[in-house]
Amino acid sequence: LIYRNSGGSNVFTVNQSGSAVASADMRAPFFYDSDNTGYYGNFAGASNINSMQMAGTLSLFAGYYEGSILFGSEPTWRCGIRQHDDGDAELRIWAKNANGMIFLATGYDGEPSSIARPTNGIAIQNNNVGIGNFSSSDPSYDLHVADGGIGYATASWRAPIFYDSDDTTYY
Questions:
Q1: Cβ-based neighbour number of residue 118 at 10 Å
Q2: What is the pTM of this model?
Q3: Which of 19, 40, 106, 157 is the most buried (most CB within 10 A)?
Q4: Three-class SS of residue 107?
Q5: CB 72 within 8 A of CB 79
Q6: How far apart are CA 169 and CA 11, in angstroms?
Q7: How many Å apart are CA 105 and CA 28, to the nearest integer?
Q8: For 91-137, how does the pLDDT look when each residue is reduced to its tens digit (9 = 90+)?
Q9: Closest Cα partner for 26 from 39, 41, 36?
Q10: Residue whose C-alpha is closest to residue 145's, from 171, 121, 126, 169
Q11: Would you call 82 helix, strand, or coil by DSSP?
């Protein structure tokens, strides 16, 4: 099936295998997946897409100074990344549940099939910050600052001088 303009050029073609090609654009309020109409694109509203792989840049905007990525649909366990600017340009990485953990990890590919937690990097949980080696069964951080400000290390702490925080005449 071929539609031509008055100059004889093809403007819309549907070939024998069902592929449609337009020389300009194609428009519709919704584009549905022909295999499963539960998946659709409504580009001015909400879309339902199973997964997406991008070869270029992903830019998210929710106003001039806002942008968020939310992970998970269960409100209790939701986590995300949010950019917010109220004069100081913040980047917030958060886990809603107080028992959740935030990892900044190395040596971890993050693939969904990789159920194990990362084992090296920075972990934050319940106002505790750990740096170094960690696991779900033995959080043996190389450096650990616990809730309340107590610090621990698996090796020595070094500085030219240490002062008493209550009285700096003692060191």
A1: 19
A2: 0.57
A3: 40
A4: coil
A5: yes
A6: 85
A7: 43
A8: 888 888 877 788 887 766 666 655 566 667 888 888 888 888 765 55
A9: 41
A10: 126
A11: strand
